[in-house]
Amino acid sequence: MNRKELDPESSPQAAFGARVRSSREARGWKQEDLAERMGYSSTHISAVETGRKMPTLRFSRSADRTFGTGDTADTFERQWREIRHGSLLEGFPQYVGHEGRAVEIRLYEIGIVPGLLQTPEYARVLADSAVRRGAITPEQADERVSFLAERQAALVRPRPPMMLVVMDESCIRRRVGGDEVMGTQLDRLVQFAEQPNTVLHIAPFDIGERRPFDLPMNLLTLSDLSVIAYAESQMRGHLERETTAVLPQLTAYHQLQAEALPQAASVTMINEARKGTP
After folding, report:
1. Which of 76, 85, 210, 218 is placed for a possible disulfide with 60 were both Cys, Cβ 3.0 to 4.6 Å?
2. CA within 13 Å, CB half, 43
3. What is the pairing mode between strands 217-221 and 227-232?
C-alpha cells in the first residue's frame, strides 16, 4: 500500500494529520478501524492524515473521544482551533503546541500585557478594537479570546512551567479598556508575581538604548532542555529551533533581565500605576 509521507512541520494542517496518523498507528489500527470508531469513511480519514482535507470541529472532537485526549491540555480540538484561527501568524500554531508542554517560558512584551497574563476583559477589549479597525471579524475576535483562555488553561497543571516575564514599562502605562479594565489587569500582574513559579520584571523607559530587543520575544525551554524562540513582526511570525540562532536571543534576554527592575521594585511600579484607578 502506498503511504504518503508528510512533514508535520510544513503546516498546521499537516501537523494535525500526522498526529492523527501516529495516534492511530500507535494503537495498531488501520484507517478502516479508525473510520469505524470515529464515524467517518476511511477515505475521509486518509484525506485528513495526508493534509488533503481540512479537519473540522466535529472531526477533532470525535478524535478526542476516540483517542481519549478530551481531558488533556493538548486536545485535537485545541489543535483544530489553532488551524482555524485566521489571524494567527506563521509559526504561531507550532509555537503554541510547544508552549503547552514547555518546562520554562520566558516572555518579553512591548506595549501590551503578554497574552498569557491578560485578564479576559483586557483580552476582549483588544479583540473588539481589532474588529472595529476591520482587521478581524467578530467571529475571529471570539475565537481569539477563547483561544487565549485555552492557552492559559494549558499552563495550569500539576507541574506548571517556570515563567519569567519582562514587560516594557509601556505595558503598564498604556491604558487599555478604561480604568476598571486596566485596574483589574494590573491587579492580575501583582498576583502573578506572587506565584512560586513566576518571576516578573518591568524594563523601565530609562534603560534607553540598553534594551536589547525592539520586538516582543518568546523563549521556551522544553523537557529535553532544548530552547526554541518565537518572534513576531507586524506581518509575520518566525519560530526558530537552531541552537546557533536561539542562544544569542537567550543571552540577550539575560542581559534584559539584568537591566530591568527587580521583582519587588517592579511590583511597586505596577502598584503606583494602579493608583488613581477605582
Report:
1. 76
2. 0
3. antiparallel
The mean of the pLDDT values for the chain is: 89
Sequence spans of domains, the chain: 12-84, 92-116+156-274
Closest listed residue to residue 216, CA positions, set 116, 85, 102: 116
230 with 237: CB under 8 angstroms? Answer: yes
Rounded to an integer, what distance in angstroms lies between the CA atom of residue 170 and that of residue 175?
9
For domain 92-116+156-274, which CATH number applies: 3.30.870.10, 2.130.10.10, 3.40.50.300, 3.20.20.140? 3.30.870.10
Within a 13 Å sphere around the CA of 241, how many CA atoms are in the beta-carbon half? 6
* Cα–Cα distance for residue pair 230/56, rounded to 1 Å: 27
The pTM score is: 0.70
Mean pLDDT is lowest, of 44-48, 71-75, 177-181, for 71-75
- Counting DSSP H helices and E strands in the chain, the numbers are 12, 6
Distance between start and end Cα atoms, the chain:
68
Q: Based on C-alpha coordinates, what's the Rg of the chain?
A: 21
Assigned CATH class of 12-84:
mainly alpha
